[in-house]
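Support reply, case 0932

Customer input (verbatim):
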Amino acid sequence: MSALNSSLATPSVFLLTGIPGLEAAHVWFSIPFCSMFLVALVSNTAVIQVVVREQSLHKPMYIFLAMLALNDIILCLVIVPKMLAIFWCNAEEIPFEGCLTQMFFVHALYLSESAILLAMAFDRYIAICEPLRYTSILTTSVIEKMGAGLVARSICVVTPGVFLLKGLLYCKTNVIHHTYCENMGIAKLACADITINSVYGLMAAFLTTGLDAIFIVVSYMLILRAVLRLPSQDARLKAFGTCGAHIFIFSVFYTLAFFSFFTHRFGPNVPHHVHIILANLYLLVPPTLNPIVYGVKTKEIRVRVLGLLCQKQSVPK
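Our regenerated output:
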């Protein structure tokens, strides 16, 4: 039964129904989602392998790329296997604690992705606007502290949301009309006032990803101003080429995320299945595009990935 007895404070399981109203098309939706999942796993793994193996790529820009790739792999593994199980096997049940755990990782990894994009924007700003101080500013110690800081930020921001959810009474239903567990999707099942959950979610989003987006825009505005002042046209083209990939990924990530975020809260006339599809796209599209775009636009990554593929093909069976 999907309905819960009102005397139960916490359900033992939740039911994830997938995309509401489009259950008959779940198999068809699984094709692009599974394809993006496989592309994201293979391409991001290739990026990590190349950066780790090549000593010449042990530089801030490539280390940040490897961090982004690792974050994307974990994010895909957190949401896609369960989603495909729902689409293919109607495996809707997920334990209450498992749902909270998935929610924690989904939001924490999303926040860390935003922080890594900010770190990459900072890296490009220093490289173009302060080239003589680049190696002295972005030292190995600084990069390690930035990595630890983004992990700590994600944990500190998301953890209170988990405890707020654990403190609610759930007496309405245990059915979540979604493909994965997320904060407000769980909170709306409670029979208590969830104003604090909603306010905390909005404030956390603005003070993290919102500020990240603002700082990234400011960084690239300063970068653009510096690039336009370069005396050499070749130098300007090279700088535009390097930053173009970053700006594209940044635009895709935040456009999908903010559109999904605001329609979920302030778009009551938008069909629910549109919310769900957007929520999946903003988590799956960036991990799929990141290694492809950076692989094409970053010569060092492209050459070494092609070399790695050719090396594997030449290995005798």
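We compared this against your earlier run and they match. Two observations from our side: The chain has a mean pLDDT of 85. The first strand starts at residue 13 and ends at 16. Please reopen the case if you see a mismatch on your end.
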